[in-house]
Amino acid sequence: MAASLQLPADVEGMSAEQVLGFVLGEFPGRVSLACSFQKEESVLLDLLFALEPKARVFALDTHVLFPETYEVWRAVEQRYGTRVEVFEGPSLGRQAAVHGDALWERKPDLCCSIRKVEPLNRALAGLDCWITGLRRDQSPSRADAPKVGWDEAHELWKANPLADWTDEQCWAYVRERDLPVNPLHERGYASIGCTHCTAPGVSREGRWAGLDKVECGLHTAGTNLRDLTSVRSQPSEPS
Q: Is the pLDDT confidence value at 82 over 90?
């Protein structure tokens, strides 16, 4: 469990590099970037490895990611000489045996829980902080994401260094640095997840199209992302 942390008074005015430098310094070896291989992670990977070449990165392999996503994954590992930690749920066959075929069509929340939320819980075990590519303009559910906040659902700190970045800023950085980037973005996919649940669309409109669902549960399962700039969190001791 992470010790209590006093955030800098100017944390919301810090640059993405400064936020990354802050959490790397506060949580050496116990902070990791959650990577979904979208343009935001392309930016964060480049910034992170410039600060710490041996930084930890993990990905959730749902077994139904796009081929283009797996290609970017390989390109990232080659470019930075790193190995992304993999966390995954049961095989698709095992899931079908227990819940039936095409669970993502019948019960998408349950499918996300099995293939994403549970693996994320394992990925975060032992960490004091995780880094994400959340941006406030991606959706109303992310509009209040702080640059650094206490994640009550997972009981650790959460950093969103690109919280105040725009699409244009992300693309400008990607092009300036000639970074590996998911080609699906150029085909109209603003947000990229699993093959069965992702279609072209602006913002997150292409995720679970036609359903009253915009999040998979990784960032919304009771997580309090309020700005804790002036709050000294006191995490409870494990029972």
A: yes
